[in-house]
Fold these 4 entries.
Entry 1:
Amino acid sequence: MDGGDSVTNQSINTSRRQLFTRRQNSEYPHLPWAKQAQFTDLCTQCAKCIPSCPEHIIQPGDGGFPTINFQKGECIFCYQCAQACPESLFYAQEEPVWTAKAIINDSCIAKQNVECRSCGDMCDTQAIRFKLAVGTVAQPNIITDDCTGCGACVSVCPTNAIQIKLT
């Protein structure tokens, strides 16, 4: 490089490098009951989990690793993906599902003072509650202890303001 062309770490897109290192973004859950920290080491990308999902939310992701697309629906925690997997990728069904929780970002239209409660209406565990406030519409509040990370709230959000992330 000549003196005028310098590359900083901020300008390098490292997300594509994860394909070659078999590492995925560990911020998002892979599959329920999956050994999240060892997922890319144990998964052989056989895709047997994909057709086993009755909700059709498992799809091939980066590098062929299965991933959950909450835009297609919610996880009903049926354990069928784990039963279809020939590898020792999953914990027993009696173990906790995962530590994933819903997170609502600032693009939520309720935070823009527009009435919307679609996420709360879809939450079976009532983990998303709305706090009344004077002079504004009710604001969503996630009770993390009640959130299962099922993703039912994700696909109904009109602004894609909800993500399911590992805590």
Entry 2:
Amino acid sequence: MSVEHASTRLIDGYARGDTDLAADEVWALEAHLEACRSCRDRLSAAVTVTAPAVTALVGTVWADLEPRLAAIPTMPRRRRLRSRLSTWLTPTTVPWLAMIMSVTLLALLFDIGDPGAGHGSGEVSLVLLLSPVLPVLGVAASWSRGLDPAYELTASVPRAGLQLVLRRTVAVLVLVVPTLFVGGWVTGVTAAQWLLPCLAFTSTTLALGGVVGVTRAALALVAVWAAVVAAPTLATGRVPLALRTDGLPVWGLILTLGIGVVIARRGAYSVLGAHR
């Protein structure tokens, strides 16, 4: 299949129901057909020519369904909104996001109770220390088979790949990052100290998730952060080098590498293993 449109070979083979088409070609074609009206029209024409029995069957089914569909009442606005939200977040993600917000609030309260934290005194700010890894927990929750009862159906549809995992990641970041901005503003922690590490951790989670599963990758990175950075920082009470402005170029490099790996392995997110 070309970058813009499906090839005639794929369209005709799909219309005939050829079994020799590769599974990844079929998946890519179905995903492309969702967004390309031109290729859908070509497929319709191909089915009419190569599989008239299928065309007749579809016509019969549609003639039976059309009056029934017309009698179905319009979906209420609240349900339509809920349906749109379900394409970005699973219902079971909400408690996890509430937990992340609660952890951020507790870190903020501890920082407020310690006036020296985050204000240049050298004392570590809990908001600064936790901000790089908090979104990772939300991403893990939004892409975990244990928290998504429909994960098998989700992973089998054409849009289950990189597009879906990016949607869920963006939904988590949209909710968590503004909260961290507020926490940083209240405690005097600049966004430059935590935003780039936060995005770098998220991209690395997705990059490793294509190999070992998003949830496993998130838990492993959080454990490494806790052991290598968080625990020593709490013991010494000093802001670690990883969260100083001197370390931002390294975080930028990690972010770039993570994005590159995600793009290069974008097909890995369409399999059930990514939900581990």
Entry 3:
Amino acid sequence: MATIRRIGVLTSGGDAPGMNACIRSVVLTAAAHQIEVIGFSHGYNGLIEGDYTKLLPYHVQHIIQLGGTILKSARCPALQTEEGAKAAAATLRQLQLDALLVIGGDGSFKGALAIAQHYKGQILGLPGTIDNDVDGTDATIGYATAIDTALDAIDKIRDTADAFERIFLVELMGRHSGFIALSAGIASGAEQIICPEFGTLEPGQLDTVIRPIQNAQVLKGKSSYIIVMAEHCYPGGSTTLAADITDAIGIECRACVLGHIQRGGSPVGADRILATKLGAYAVEQLLGGAHLMMAGEVNHQAGLYPLQASGERKKRIDPYLLRWQQQVAND
């Protein structure tokens, strides 16, 4: 068993509901093992600049239900340089930390790997991102809440779409991944879903979107039509696509971009439980000597996955749901 007396923790990159629950779990589990926890503010910036605070159990009381992160988060361009990685490692050595826990996505894990080149302590990652685009875990912390947030918005948009007999195009987050769009689209009963896994959509391919709309209006008598779209799937975004659809068929199509609303809010139960489980598991695995690994959950079992491999390939979306949605859309 490794000797761990003092560890650091930070949240990096885009915030995700459940990050606070994960911080809480790390602190409480560490306290049970007589391990001191140092929390760095504003992601890697706090690590490089020496902006930190000692976290005790009373600091994490009543935060499990809070969105955001009490440690704050930020991008850190400085860490993309060797000087930045060396400065971060220097802080870890200066504070005599035996290990560092990084809560974030694949970009944050790349930063952890850069620091590892100059630091002899242990480093573990915890997958905190709404995008669910990290390999080695079935779900990331924040993903379930993001789906519920999107679903609530789409359900409300359906009401007004029905009332005015309109087409609505709802743009969701997901960078280059369609996890949120596919899940929220299926759960809301959206008529169409546009995400990277279905292929890129160009203005010259607009007929693939328009034809199902026209068929639904004429053959199925629909009074509303919802298209859920992942960001970056059409040149100019959802606003441009909505205008192009309106011009093409003469029926008004409105765009609604949910944006950062998907990253906020109180985490749902699934995210609180996942964050608590992985936070505790990560601390326990440090005691077992784990290094340069990510704590994830596959088939309801916590496990370790190489940190380097977590972002090497594009995580596959559920192929069954993809096939089902394509069949329904083409029916």
Entry 4:
Amino acid sequence: MKKVDDLRLNVSLLRRKVPNLTSAARQVGLRPATVSNLCTGKISVGRAEVRTLVALASLADCSLDDLIIRGEKIEMIETKIKTLDLFAPLAKGGTVGLVARTGMGQLVVLAELFYRFKKEVYKTILLMPEGEHQGLNDLVENVEIITNTIDDTYERIANIGGDQDIMFIADRSHVITGRIQQLQENLQGVGIHSVTTFLVDLTGEVVDEDLPYGPLETLWQFDADLVARHRYPAVNPLSSTSSVLEGAHLDQEHFTIQQKALKILRRYRELRSLVNVSGIERIPTSALQTYRRGEKLEAYLTQAFYIAEPFTKKLGQAVSLQDTLNDVKEIMNGAVDSKDVSELEFIGNLQSDHLE
């Protein structure tokens, strides 16, 4: 018998069988947000209503045994970008969707990731989107292979073969037509399972939809408030998630620290709304410590990027997941209570020269 906490949805099967999952879910009375949370693991299969699982199996024309699979270890790709690795890790071989309006920095994040990946063992591929988009040139400069059609993309990836890890970016327009799902199915059909796919929507329309990309392993939601306050990368920890975070896959230390950090950041945001309206003197004394530590934690999660060095004049920083976990734990335990928030902005780890 399968353990309840060791189960997950077969996301790749859902992606293949129900490419238009948003409308399909609504038609059978399912909330797209619920389906999205089940796919990324934000809601565990064990907590899902039976009728929801039965409806999904019906949509995919499969059995419950096909839909619900044992949660084999999902491998995390460490980006050394603090907020991504801590709150919404990249699932190797999965699909990640970026949800952002224009100007929130999603292309900068992708360009930075691909700059880093290019220095590793990954092949990087961009299916060129139509039109002109600010920030696209930075992305193009940091990608090894540029393609112009789905068919061309298939040929290039097939020629690389299944032994090489591949990072691939495509625009949502190819998701809407079903071509991305077909590409993924065709690649799996020839034994290529090593492609990690990044999906973006350069129109910004994606933010108004519940399930804009279909089933995902990882969701990165960008945040207008973080952008307005120049807190980059502006990925919202409270609404971004990943299937790597399911209990069966995540290291216990990571899970414990991440959950505590989310609790502090959530409360900090609530208190910050009060401060913005009435001033900090309105915060209850009992909540002041949480507010201050949340403020410092948010500042620590900012990070200087290598590709932005000519513009920001700040050296790019790569921080290992273990350093991030140690630092976040220190911040939450009060080790930097005496530091000013500005001392934590755009640093690497807490051992950097900036804090000595």
